[in-house]
Amino acid sequence: MGISDRKGVLPTTLNLKQARGFTIIELMIVLVIVAIGVALAVPTFRSITEKRQLTSAAENVAAFMSFAQSAAVKYDRDVIVNMQRADFDTWCVGATLGSTACDCTEDDTTAANFCDIDGVPRRVHHAGVISNANYQLLQSIQVNGTPSASSNVIFDPVRGTLLNLEVISFQMHTNTDSGSDKEYQLNVNVLPTGSVSICTATGRKLL
Known about the structure:
Elements: H1 2-19, H2 24-75, E1 79-87, E2 90-97, E3 116-117, E4 120-121, E5 123-127, E6 140-143, E7 146-147, E8 150-155, E9 168-175, E10 183-190, E11 196-200
Antiparallel strand pairs: 1-2, 1-8, 2-5, 3-4, 6-7, 6-9, 9-10, 10-11
């Protein structure tokens, strides 16, 4: 009888132990571990996002300059490219046929100086892409090595070259850690021949 009672009590005791949940201390430890993981992941995710935005901007500019060159040959007319930079996150590049420059900041499609080719808007426009001053989306636009806030260049329709043999460089970079030297930099270079390339800060070509 006594043995039977003990056998009946033992499973009940085990079930109670198995059924108990996490203690407050265990939950706190898990939350601390999760918080540490998130804190470590956020800067990395931000860095990846900013690099992707920078790469996308560089690719858009490179593709646009290549298009402007091919449009000059296709239409057998000069294509003039207007480039403007008001700030690191407010800049634009636009193109139109002829030798009279358009204004890439113009948003009114009916305006005479709107950038279009055959009625199709032709511009790359970035405004307020990111508010972090350490993230220099477009550091400078250089023509023949000289930074320029606003400049025009013309693609020649015969050879697809830059009419005045300019060398253009769109210099883009990000500094994701304020006060550090950790930067990701890309340059979009356009040679007098009309050749367009994307290079890293070390000069390695990506395009």
